[in-house]
Amino acid sequence: MPNLATSPRRIDRKTAFGGALRVNTATFSRKKAILAAVLTQKRPLALFCVSTWLCLLLAACSSPVQQAVQMEYAQWFGITESGQVVVYSPSGADPDTLEGPVGRLVCMSSSYVGFLEAIGADETVVAVSGLDYLGNEAVRTHAVEVGYDAALNYEAILQAKPDLFLTYSVSAVEPPYLAKLRDLGVRSVVLSEHLESHPLARAEYVKLFGALTGRLQEADSVFAAVRDNYLSLVQEEPRKKVLINIPYADIWYIPGGDNYMTRLVEDAGGVLLGSEPGQQESGTIGLEQAYAYAQEADVWLNPGWCRTREQLRSVHPLFEYFPVLEKSVWNNTLQTTEGGGNRFWETGPVHPDLILEDLVHIFSDKPVQAPLHYFLHVE
Asked: Disulfide engineering: 86 pairs with which of 18, 68, 137, 217, CB 3.0-4.6 Å?
């Protein structure tokens, strides 16, 4: 079920923080509690138990998961001191440990291409899903199309001879095609970049791609610049009330309070009307509620496919009576591709600072004069 506030390739899911990391922390805490209990018994057996549990604790600390350096913002991956990438699963499954550098990648998400482009490693992309939608001309020229989810072209994948197949999942269940790929000898891993709610958490995945391709130093530099620029742009006080989206299949989606898009709006000085606090996934509102929000909104963001106000009026006759329609309407479709893709979803995840910069300009009381990166003024 698509969500117009998030990438069209996925639906945000509410996830518990910590995943495999939380499981390890809980295990570690239980071991310490048992150790304390043994020490208080003051019996000869205590010495044996202490020795046993100390060994277990040391073993836990020496595991690949424990060695992974925690990222600044990202939850679902880490990088060891030796440069291995450890990918955690929100479902609590065992983590995947990946060795780099790799030279041939299959990317099932356009955002992966954006991360690789940012560090000058897009030549490693040998196959993608949705080739015609890409804005990266170099990848569109040399990569091959592998299809989508249930309709994967396994022959094309094998001919591309990938070192690694990178994909995502919109549910807790592993994509069924992964078992087939493993049977064919294709190493595959599921990334959870799209489940990260903080814009800088998603941007930090550039480090994962840097470690995989032997460009970690470049990735660290890219992320540091993005982080510093983003944080310098954050607005402390809300200035504008924001209506977001239009109905999709007669359902109007509003991202939750912990959603990626909501965080961007809030950091830019906006208040997203109808956003449910504490929720990451999107909620829904009726047209009557949207009409009420339109009365108080200062800005209308991301109205679907519409690039003009006339197109917006054609979506529903009630939109003619939305006061916000005559105020300020902006869509994230400035960088659409000939094939119908959108660079907002391809390069935006690695450059949330540029998205934030756009929104700060849009929410300003001054007329927008600076050229924007991703947003188009709907006139």
From this structure: 68
